């Protein structure tokens, strides 16, 4: 990798591209861009340090900058938000779960009267999901193509299911599938296969895809220069275009001139940069949210669990397939193969328990968001989950006995809602015009035409699926829309 000092970053006359942040949105934009324009001079400005995989394992942390040091809570809102500040962004801490969005997830506004429709459809992303599934060496079963049309054979076979999953696949309602994951089920080069140790933010064997074990070619490309410790503060806009990117390093201020600016600083910091640059758009910083994560434990009579080949073995899409209702949110069930809730206490029955994580979609509320109070940190306000999400949670729990009826269920215990699952979305959402959104269907700011926003901030609605495969696919599509 070619690291440059802040002085070198600001000395270049005009960079062809300045990319802000180096997480999923940024790196997949860069990867595609380099295929089309390999000779352009590209600068990445990354706020955090380069914390190598070895450093992360040794320090039991993904970064030396905890997320909560980078934002303030607004009055009355204490909800935490999780992400990595550092080179590679949240490719470091993520857990590698990669389902697609469902075709219906692009039409939440029409289906419920809540939230908005996307300005693109499922079919627009199919070729990009296919390509990203190949690049990220996703392990999975093409059987899931019944729900996600256009699914090809995955490059890696699915991880071993648990006995409970096998029963669900054989005797269930046809909506239980191996979870698609960016965790190897077969070793590749120096990367080991997943051994189900369930410490996935710090995978010890490199089974999980990260920027460092799978994107070295992109980060080390001769056209790419990387400034680390460079916190972008604001952009200069002249004549409807970004002309310069301002950043600080070790207390000093610098700027880098550019022809194209790509903003991928996550869904809390990207809108803050927008706000401090005075860039217009409907709801800049607003509509921030994430889906709800809740845990349940299904007590099994005489069936042992925890015999799968990875941390999260299966996804159940029954509720998604039934269709969306205005009464309650969509949700998916994720079968966990880890001891998150421990064993059962009864002698001889320790393994007769099935942890399920629920992902319940939410609709983004205008009042939830990122605000600039004039200090150097964004203020984040989040009232609470919507009634729609709470009703979705109740619905998902109430349906477990029926959907999982092939299993010997003795009881279902609700274990609570988690404060965050790290799927921060919204705040610079995508739409058809500046009256309803911040960026267009090609992820270009309606107001500033050489500013492309990447990452999960552009999601108008969160869906119940994990967002990152889709964010990467959207970055690829943005390059193709821009450069053809
Ligand atoms: C613990 C955890 C587990 C997760 N597991 C999954 C999963 O299994 N599946 C899934 O789909 N998603 C998962 N996610 C979510 C996933 O990580 C995010 O959806 C994804 O990383 C978002 O991509 P992004 O490019 O928007 O942001 P990021 O990947 O977070 O990248 C943002 C980048 O911007 C940098 N930055 C921030 N501010 C500035 C600034 N002012 N100047 C310069 N640089 C800046 C950051 O350091 C970082 O490099 C998980 C998240 C967490 C926290
Ligand atoms: S389960 Fe273990 S081996 Fe597999 S990705 Fe997670 S930490 Fe790595």
From TrEMBL:
Record flagged with keyword Oxidoreductase: yes
Cofactor: FAD
UniProt entry tagged with the keyword Transmembrane: no
Domain Glucose-methanol-choline oxidoreductase C-terminal intervals: 420-474
Keyword line: FAD, Flavoprotein, Oxidoreductase
Pfam families: GMC_oxred_C
Family, similarity comment: Belongs to the GMC oxidoreductase family.
Name of this protein: GMC family oxidoreductase
């Amino acid at each position: 990798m070619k690291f440059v000092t802040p002085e070198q970053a600001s000395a270049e006359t005009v960079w062809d591209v300045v990319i802000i942040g180096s997480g999923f949105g940024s790196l997949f934009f860069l990867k595609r861009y380099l295929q089309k324009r390999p000779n352009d001079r590209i600068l990445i400005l990354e706020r955090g340090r380069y914390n190598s995989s070895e450093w992360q394992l040794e320090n039991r942390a993904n970064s030396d900058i905890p997320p909560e040091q980078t934002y303030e809570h607004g009055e009355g809102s204490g909800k935490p938000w999780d992400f990595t500040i550092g080179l590679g962004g949240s490719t470091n801490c993520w857990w590698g779960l990669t389902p697609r969005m469902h075709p219906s997830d692009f039409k939440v506004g029409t289906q419920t009267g809540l939230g908005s429709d996307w300005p693109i459809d499922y079919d627009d992303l199919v070729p990009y999901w296919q390509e990203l599934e190949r690049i990220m060496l996703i392990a999975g079963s093409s059987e899931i193509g019944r729900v996600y049309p256009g699914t090809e054979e995955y490059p890696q076979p699915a991880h071993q299911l648990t006995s409970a999953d096998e029963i669900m696949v054989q005797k269930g309602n046809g909506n239980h599938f191996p979870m698609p994951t960016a965790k190897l089920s077969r070793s590749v080069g120096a990367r080991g296969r997943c051994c189900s140790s369930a410490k996935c933010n710090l995978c010890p064997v490199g089974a999980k895809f990260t920027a460092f074990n799978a994107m070295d070619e992109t980060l080390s490309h001769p056209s790419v220069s990387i400034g680390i410790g460079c916190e972008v503060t604001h952009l200069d806009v002249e004549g409807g275009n970004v002309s310069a990117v301002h950043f600080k390093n070790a207390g000093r201020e610098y700027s880098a001139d550019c022809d194209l600016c790509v903003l991928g600083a996550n869904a809390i910091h990207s809108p803050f940069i927008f706000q401090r640059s005075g860039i217009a758009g409907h709801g800049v910083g607003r509509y921030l949210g994430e889906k709800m994560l809740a845990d349940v434990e299904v007590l099994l009579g005489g069936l042992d669990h925890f015999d799968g080949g990875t941390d999260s073995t299966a996804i159940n899409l029954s509720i998604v397939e039934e269709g969306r209702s205005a009464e309650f949110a969509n949700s998916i069930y994720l079968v966990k193969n880890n001891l998150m809730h421990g064993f059962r206490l009864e002698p001889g029955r320790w393994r007769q328990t099935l942890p399920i994580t629920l992902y319940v979609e939410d609709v983004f509320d205008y009042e939830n968001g990122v605000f600039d109070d004039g200090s150097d940190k964004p203020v984040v306000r989040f009232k609470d989950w919507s009634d729609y999400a709470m009703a979705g949670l109740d619905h998902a729990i109430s349906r477990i006995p029926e959907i999982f009826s092939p299993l010997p269920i003795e009881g279902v215990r609700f274990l609570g809602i988690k404060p965050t699952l790290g799927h921060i979305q919204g705040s610079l959402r995508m739409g058809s015009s500046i009256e309803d959104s911040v960026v267009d269907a090609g992820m270009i700011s309606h107001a500033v035409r050489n500013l492309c926003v990447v990452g999960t901030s552009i999601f108008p609605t969160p869906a119940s699926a994990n967002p990152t495969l889709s964010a990467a696919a959207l970055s690829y599509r943005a390059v193709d829309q821009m450069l053809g």
